[in-house]
Specification:
This protein is α+β, with helices and mostly antiparallel strands. The chain has helices spanning 2-34, 48-51, 178-188; strands spanning 44-46, 76-79, 87-94, 103-112, 117-118, 133-134, 156-165, 189-199.
């Protein structure tokens, strides 16, 4: 009797294992037959003028404070924004500036959701998307202000960041600081993508 109980238990366990394996195999086959959806590509940005040359060139450097660049904002191209994106914003920021708080070089917001990039010079008022607005930079003006680090510094990092936003318009005053706009960007972001350029003199 003792022996038959153990045999019965072993038989039950073997049957359960067989049924579990059969079920898992069937589920795997169904999943394979249906196929799994490919993951959505990540939101990304590129800046051909910055990436192809490795470092930021005179075309995009500031034209004051001892710098003699052309101060033209670089072209930016982005793709694969997340679902629900209602507008975009772009910022350019130098965390290496010797200020204790970095330096804001560019803030553009309320860029329509239909946009897939910015043409060169958009930050200077040329071919800017309809409805877009420019915020104050740390130069004390609106629009793009290019790199102009202190002479002798190691090359600074200039982060060009694109925000995909869940709102079609930021509710900020026209004279809002870059920090205020940045607060609203982070409060409404769905995703961000960044490209970085280097410049020193």
């Amino acid at each position: 009797m003792f022996r038959s109980k153990w045999q019965r238990a072993a038989f039950i366990l073997a049957g359960a294992a067989f049924l579990g394996a059969t079920s898992a195999s069937g589920q795997a086959a169904k999943a394979k037959a249906k196929g799994t959806a490919a993951p959505k590509a990540a939101f990304k940005v590129s800046a051909p003028d910055l990436e192809s040359k490795g470092r930021i060139t005179a075309a995009h450097v500031y034209n004051s404070f001892g710098c003699t660049g052309q101060n033209v904002s670089p072209a930016l191209n982005w793709s694969n924004p997340p679902a629900g994106t209602k507008s975009f914003a772009v910022t350019a920021y130098d965390p290496d500036a010797p200020t204790g708080s970095g330096w804001w070089h560019w803030v553009m917001y309320n860029i329509p959701a239909t946009a897939t990039g910015l043409a060169a010079g958009a930050g200077n008022g040329r071919n800017a998307p309809s409805g877009s607005q420019q915020g104050m930079t740390d130069f004390g003006t609106k629009g793009y202000g290019g790199p102009c680090p202190p002479v002798g510094d190691k090359p600074h990092h200039y982060h060009f960041k694109v925000f995909a936003l869940k709102t079609d318009k930021l509710d900020v005053p026209g004279n809002a600081t870059s920090a205020m706009i940045g607060y609203n960007l982070n409060a409404n972001k769905l995703a961000t993508a960044t490209v970085t350029g280097l410049y020193g003199r």
